[in-house]
Design brief:
This protein is an alpha/beta fold. 47% of the residues lie in helices and 25% in strands.
């Protein structure tokens, strides 16, 4: 096979325990793995979130370099999985009145869905959006297109995450110097590749037992119904073991050797050693080790069970529970989940549904391991070729120096852009403060006008304020501040707040203008005469 072909696909997984990269090529319905590389994260990615951009850059850069050395081809872009502790689902509702009885069109549904997608979440951004169901004039309908109605309400499931989740990932790949072909929501791509259509249709829950997090995705009728990330994973077991104390370098091996999610105390293996000897010679009872592992695993499973109940689909999962991820390899994990969730149909997904083979260049990657399902899912989602120029030599010192200079230049540009963005955010906050102050000023003027409207000076002050205040606050200065932040997801909430404040101020100014006109009319010569005549008429009527 000629691995120098450019039409291979590259995927990168930013995991809590390691950063891995994979390159593959689709041929005759089969994904051929051409290269695989990984680097330990050393704490730069915590709970699926990039915390240390520089260290993450170094790890990703190393992974890319390893892949390129095998492929003999420059990598220009990659598919990147995003996930982590802030990824979760949120239900939103959008209502629309069609004014008259009319047929509901695709355009109307698209507009409602787009409105749902753009609902601002404070410090969060929407990654994916799934329609759940629609209500047309009190009738629940899965597909309302073509239905006659006046009122329609759409229920949507927004998959959201902290705004900095994507921002940090994008900064890392900008520094590496390769484009992101697409940011894929890792748990959703994983579900697409390990669940069957029958399972998603009948109703099932996918549990991905990761290193720092555990993710739950619930399906029913082929629609994502619930997603939550629990900030607990197998690394928590390692931390517990280190308190026994077992050296951190040994905890992973101890967990793999003695891990049991649901011990059978009646079936004790007499041949098993009663104590474990640590690297420094201390002895710890194996029973103690097993109890620690089981307790933490039990906590993780209990949290999953509770979230399944919170999804409101616990009694609708006809296809049961599907477990994957590194933690699914633990002994008796199926038994433990069954005991906690009361779900009797449980299976472990240790491979993707698609046909995948690896070449001799793919290293020691295990295609039949649950640890590989996520990165294979990201690779299988790719469609755009990721290869660039081919080369027949290893990069020399000059290449590395040039690459580093380019990275530093990109980093300076990114820092300048971030500084400009921060400055724009501060400027917009000041504009919002000015609008709030203007509103208070208008309200004060309205009260003064109501009390001293006969005073010509008061009316003139009020009129001058009504004519000038909007230009000073929501005029060109406001529009310029909005333009500086438009299109940036993390400022959606702030922009929405600014728009709401501007609308409130405009209504208040309109009210002030109306009261000024009324006061001027009442206090003009004709107005005073009319008032005088009205008083006389009222007095005669009373008499």
């Amino acid at each position: 096979m000629n691995v120098s072909d450019k039409d291979f696909i590259v995927a990168i997984e930013l995991g809590s325990s390691k950063i891995s990269g994979i390159a593959g090529k689709k041929k005759d319905g089969t994904m051929q793995i051409l290269a695989y590389a990984e680097e330990k994260t050393a704490g730069c990615v915590k709970r699926g979130v990039v915390y240390n951009i520089e260290k993450t850059f170094q790890s990703v850069n190393s992974v890319i370099a390893k892949l390129e050395s095998v492929l003999k081809t420059k990598i220009t872009r990659a598919y990147v999985g995003v996930g982590g502790q802030s990824v979760r689902s949120y239900k939103s509702f959008v209502r629309r009145n069609m004014l008259t009885q009319s047929y509901i069109t695709n355009d109307a549904i698209d507009a409602i869905r787009q409105e749902s997608y753009e609902i601002p979440f404070n410090d969060y951004t929407v990654l994916e959006n799934y329609p759940q169901e629609f209500v047309v004039d009190s009738n629940v309908i899965a597909d309302p297109v073509g239905v006659m109605g006046t009122n329609i309400e759409g229920e949507f499931l927004d998959v959201i995450a902290k705004s900095n989740l994507r921002a940090n990932v994008e900064t890392v790949f900008d520094n590496v110097g390769i484009a992101i072909a697409e940011e894929l929501v890792s748990p959703l791509q994983l579900a697409n590749c390990v669940l069957t259509d029958a399972e998603k249709r009948s109703g099932c829950a996918l549990v991905d037992l990761g290193a720092d997090t555990t993710t739950l995705v619930v399906y029913k009728n082929n629609i994502v119904r619930y997603l939550v990330t629990i900030p607990l994973g197998s690394n928590n077991i390692n931390k517990d073991l280190s308190t026994l104390p077992i050296d951190e370098t040994e905890t992973e091996d101890v967990k793999l050797k003695y891990g049991d999610a649901c011990q059978d105390l009646d079936a004790v293996d007499d041949s098993e050693p009663q104590t474990y000897t640590t690297s420094d010679g201390r002895q710890i009872e194996v029973t103690t080790i097993k109890n620690v592992i089981e307790a933490r695993m039990g906590e993780i499973i209990a949290n999953v069970s509770r979230q399944i109940v919170n999804s409101d689909y616990s009694d609708k999962l006809l296809a049961g529970l599907i477990i994957t991820g590194g933690g699914s390899n633990m002994k008796n994990v199926v038994k433990a989940f069954g005991k906690s969730t009361k779900i009797d149909k449980i299976r472990i997904a240790n491979k993707v549904n698609s046909q995948v083979v690896k070449t001799s260049n793919a290293g020691n990657m295990n295609l039949d391991s649950a640890r590989s399902t996520t990165i294979l899912s990201l690779l299988l989602a790719g469609t755009i070729p990721c290869g660039g120029e081919t080369f027949n030599r290893e990069p020399d010192m000059f290449d590395q120096q040039q690459k580093e200079e380019e990275r530093l230049a990109r980093q300076r540009e990114a820092e300048a852009a971030a500084a400009a963005e921060e400055q724009a955010a501060v400027a917009f906050d000041k504009v919002k403060g000015d609008i709030r102050a203007a509103y208070e000023k208008v309200q004060t003027q309205i009260k003064e006008l109501e009390e001293y409207g006969r005073d010509k000076k008061v009316r003139r002050r009020a009129q001058a304020l009504a004519l000038s205040i909007l230009d000073e606050t929501v005029g060109a200065k406001y529009e310029q501040a909005v333009k500086a932040l438009e299109g940036k997801d993390k400022f959606k909430q702030s922009l929405k707040e600014g728009a709401d404040l501007a609308e409130i101020l405009q209504k208040s100014v309109k009210e002030l203008g109306q009261k000024v006109n009324k006061a001027n009319k009442e206090n003009s010569a004709w107005g005073r005469l009319a008032g005088f005549i009205t008083e006389i008429v009222n007095d005669e009527d009373n008499n």
